[in-house]
Design a protein that fits this description.
Rossmann fold, alpha/beta, nine-stranded mixed sheet, five-stranded parallel sheet, binds flavin-adenine dinucleotide, about 25% strand, elongated
């Protein structure tokens, strides 16, 4: 059995969780059609249930207790453990989000097994060898997961989410979870939306326009902000930019900022230091704009425009506005 912890967003299964379910289907096929079960915490609206059927999920174990109304990594881990016990799953997986990684780290530690984060593929089942991104995606590591359950998270965009050819009829079952006070020792007590919502969409944005030191100063971000608006995306910046006070910290992308996984990332005047790359390496397509053809961001990008961002970005904006 394969057990997948899912997350929801606006009443739907989160895109990253759909990617995990697609990844799980590949594993299932390699294992001769092993069933895929899901564990979910909190409400599971009808649209999400329908999505799970279209991804050929067999059973959904739903932990709805009031104790789950506020997020707690320990409590979610107990829900995953309860579902794992109910299904005898030999593989337990989740999307490589902050929550997915936190919860499965608890699960692995309690089970006394290793956990692999940021998995992008697998090579074989016996032994079970996964490939995962390390050092911010700079290095791909092969890891043998020979303990059971095998516990891992799937990196954003490791696979493209796609419904199954033959949908299932996901059956939802109430999951009884007994929680200890220790499970709830660390929990979210309050969620405060960022004032004005500025930058709040960075993590889930489909398009992110990045701006770094190349912007030249606090007044150099106008064209990048305009490009983000034209593409319906968000602005993300490098740490130099936030350290210099040119833009607020919540816009920072990277190891000590937000980790993004948009369809399209357009880093302008950003060198691509490893700490920045750690936060953007899961982008599906990267189009770098930089004056330096040797900059790491340029050499790693899908496409690059070698030129001055103060000329290139306004030119792109004009072209977009004329269409
Ligand atoms: P630079 O490295 O100075 O690069 C500027 C780039 O702009 C160059 O490639 C240059 O060719 C190009 N350029 C200049 N002018 C133009 C122009 N007119 N048009 C086009 N291109 C131009 N950094 C992060 O971003 N996020 C993090 O989370 C983060 N965490 C860190 C954590 C630690 C512990 C440490 C030590 C560092 C961290 N850093 C982080 C900093 C990181 O190491 C780099 O210093 C930073 O990312 C560099 O920012 P930058 O690319 O904007 O600037």
């Amino acid at each position: 059995m394969i057990l997948v912890l899912i997350e929801t967003e606006d009443g739907q299964v989160a895109e990253v969780s759909l990617e995990s379910l697609t990844f799980a289907r590949g594993l299932s096929a390699a294992g001769g059609g092993v069933p895929i079960d899901v564990v979910a915490v909190g409400e599971l609206p009808d649209p999400a249930r329908a999505q799970l059927s279209s991804y050929a999920v067999r059973d959904v174990y739903l932990a709805e207790d009031d104790a789950f109304s506020a997020y707690s990594g320990g409590a979610w881990a107990s829900a995953v453990q309860a579902a794992q016990a109910a299904t005898s799953a030999v593989v337990v997986m989740a999307a490589g989000t902050n929550r997915g990684c936190e919860v499965l780290a608890h699960v692995a530690a309690r089970a006394g097994v290793a956990m692999a984060a940021n998995v992008i593929g697998f090579q074989g089942l016996a032994p079970f060898v996964v490939e995962r991104q390390v050092v911010g995606g700079q290095v791909i590591e092969e890891m043998v997961l020979d303990e059971r359950p095998a516990v891992f998270t799937v990196a954003g965009h490791a696979v493209e989410a796609s419904p199954a050819d033959a949908p299932g009829a996901a059956t939802v079952q109430a999951l009884a979870v007994s929680l200890s006070p220790a499970d709830l020792a660390t929990r979210a007590v309050r969620t405060v939306p960022r004032e004005g919502g500025e930058g709040s969409g960075l993590k889930s944005a489909r398009v992110v326009v990045g701006a770094g030191r190349g912007a030249g100063g606090p007044d150099g971000f106008g064209p990048c902000l305009e490009l983000a608006e034209l593409l319906g995306g968000s602005l993300g910046v490098s740490r130099v930019v936030t350290s210099l006070g040119w833009r607020p910290h919540h816009e920072q992308v990277g190891q000590t900022g937000t980790r993004i996984s948009p369809e399209l990332y357009i880093p302008c005047g950003i060198s691509g230091a490893i700490q920045h790359w750690a936060g953007c390496s899961s982008s599906r397509v990267i189009v770098a704009v930089n004056t330096d053809a040797e900059a790491p961001m340029v050499t790693k990008a899908t496409y690059a425009v070698i030129g001055d961002m103060h000329e290139v970005v306004p030119a792109i904006n004009e072209r977009l506005k004329s269409r």
